[in-house]
């Protein structure tokens, strides 16, 4: 029999299983829902894990996003950096959102898993999700300094992290 997990159930299990002090104790508000998300402090960086349902459909997505940099003035450099990073990864992808009016870019990393995989109810699946969370938090902790040093910008902080889901 297939076990159907809701986004809040999966997020609670991930936080409980990980028992990591970097995970913010209260849910992090994303897209108007506190029950479907939480934040991870990662050195000077910040990542968000969130799940959202598709208009009552049984299939939903769990997404993990790491903020790399905001307000990057060298947009071409940021795009090249994202392209280089995407050549070397197998899970997830780097994205560059450009604000044409301001001439600035924002760079994020995101990885997604469908509820179809999660609902297999295997401890291996939750081990995989925990590893994805760890990898995403490492990206948030290690990637910003290099990009910001080369191309400018500022790191994501908890206040700016609420915009992460809108970029992925």
Please tell me about this protein's structure.
The protein has helices spanning 7-18, 75-87, 115-118, 123-151, 158-161, 164-167, and strands spanning 37-42, 45-53, 60-72, 93-99, 104-114. The chain is elongated and about 50 Å long. Strands 1-2-3-5-4 form a 5-stranded antiparallel β-sheet. It has a single domain (7-167), classed as Yope Regulator, Chain: A (2-Layer Sandwich), CATH 3.30.1460.10. With 168 residues, the chain is an alpha+beta fold.
- Poorly predicted ranges: none
* Number of helices, counting only DSSP H or I runs of 4 residues or more: 6
**Overall mean pLDDT score?**
79
Biggest sheet architecture:
5 strands, antiparallel
